[in-house]
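ingest -> validate -> predict -> emit
validate: passed (alphabet ok, no gaps, 706 aa)
predict: started
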Amino acid sequence: MTHIHDMTDAPSFRMPQSPMPRVATERLARLAARWDAVLPGEHSARASRLESLLRRIAAAVRTEPFTSARGRAIGADLFAYGVVEGMEDPEDVLATSLTLLRAEEWVLLGTVDRTGSSRLAAVLAEVAAGFARAYGEAGADTPSTDPLADGIDEWCYRAGFEQAAHCIGLVSLDEGTLVGNPALRKLFGINGTDVPFTDFVHPDDLAEVLRLHQRLISGESEVVRADVRLVRPDLSVFWAHVIASMIRREDGAPAYVQTLVEDITERQSRVARLVHAAGRDQLTQLPGEAQAEKWLHRAFHGGSRTVGLCVVDLDGFSTLVDTLGSAGADRLLMAVAGRMQLVAGQHLLTRAGADQFLVLMADPENRCEPVQLADRLLDALSVPFMIGDRPVGVTASIGVAYSATASTTAAELTRAAEVACSWARSMGGGRRVEFDHRRDAGEAKRFALLSGLRGAIGRGEFRLAYQPLVSMDSRVLRGAEALVRWQHPDEGLIGPGRFIELAEQSGAIVPLGRWVLEEACAQAARWWHELGDDAPYVSVNVSPVQLASPDWIDDVIDILATTGLPPAKLQLEITEQAVLVDEATALASLTALSETGVRVALDDFGTGYSSFSWLRRLPVHMLKIDGSFIKGLREPSPDRVDRSIVKALIDMAHALELEVTAEWVETPVQVRRLTELGCDVGQGRWFGDPGPGQWVPSEFRRRLST
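emit:
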């Protein structure tokens, strides 16, 4: 069934329309400088003009009612500002500009979300069209003065759509042919050949799609959306959410239809499973999910005092389907259901999804009973199943929940078992995990932090503190490590231990790491201007995700150029794990940076698997010995093993002509022993806690005078 929605009266997306804050203004200025740096040639006024264009792009995305057409004038002005003057290939200028702006969407939006991203993509497409039109009117060798006059101008299309992450299609009005960007072609499994868009629509949905298409052409609607079934050339069918809008020429005449396509097959499958669950599962003949809901309703409304619930997910079932085929997988599911039914006995076993089962237990005496049932289910599944003449092993992740019916609800019990099941999956499967309220509260806090993390950069909630790096023999301030803190609006100041891992898992570490590097380099540049060449360097941590990013090295070079910080005044701290994620790429990036003069330090040294030959290949300047070894040197009678390890690490580093920093230096005893062992630099509370950047010059002078 096709689900069609006319968006004429739909509530509009609202972005903040207040004056742009100073922090956002500064970010746009820095982005304009980076934009100017990636364009060929040099023009004295170009950066300020580009900053003006960035402000207009940000305003076009934010302004209500939204229309992408504002981007066309911006594109024309981009050409008019002379950025392509004397250049042989304006297409490259446009493609380079659009690539940069798409990569920096969080700077333009102040946040990252689907609606804002779609708006920005539409505005940038119009920027490309306006640029192309201006280029044509200037007398370049293009087939028409209007890139939409005879169809889609090839190089405008390539720059505006070819690199987009969303699945975008353009439908011509005369022949109805569909031109797709790489993401859309990959979704359909087609090459670049133009094909009528009707070839991809399921026959049962075609009439509605054509009716909707006609509404766009007639002007009755400017934007529509639909949930439809689409068909690939191999005849496989998938559900898609399609948003279609009319793109018009400057005279208002229709030019072509732009479509955004999102694969929603999994979402529709979940809906279908819910509908199907109203009756008995046809394959296994087990009760469906609706029966489980009725059972729980009766249990929680006077039928039972306590309830136990096991959620059973078969591990890696999609791989088993690929291996066995659909028929073999069906036979396996029937065998699994039969074996579980024997174990469940009088307890209710239901099939809740393709590879998920529920076992419901009425009036268990205590929480041990459902746990023991889960263990028996795992034991039953551990014996291989014979599918034809082939033994097939099956494991499962089981979440167990138990509660008195008077103190909770059916929904809460179900959620508890599902959460416990997800914990079992995250631990590798093949096990049961019982729900734990304290662990759940911790997970909820982590989720709340993750939700706030995505917008915290745009809200200016992060802070940097700088901890001294001090020479062990002269006590001179050699450098300062930039440590990020989160000034959370509800929880106050949060240390990096609570949010860095979340940032790495969510991908937010890339924009956060860029912000840290920009702020730290700007601060170190102020130290350098005040203290001269003797100024301390700034040390910045780099995560494995950043180091693996293809744009990271360009970010570092651009930030150094923008802030004016000499490369020798920047030290980047990496870990062995960061290098080992993609050793070839990491070595190439670090070598290139090292050749510019940037210092590289290997952090947490001694905790990994470094070998002497591996260290010789790394372009590092300093090793930072992990604080767990330094801690053993604080007692009057030091740990002899720790002392021997520290001495060996220092001797090895010096043999490689590398400096050594000791972390966690907290007592004068540690200072004396590390100095005796030849350690070069110390860091820890004995030398100073992290403080504001303004403190560094005075601390530098104080140490020089003592």
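Confidence is low (pLDDT under 50) at residues 1-23, 140-159.
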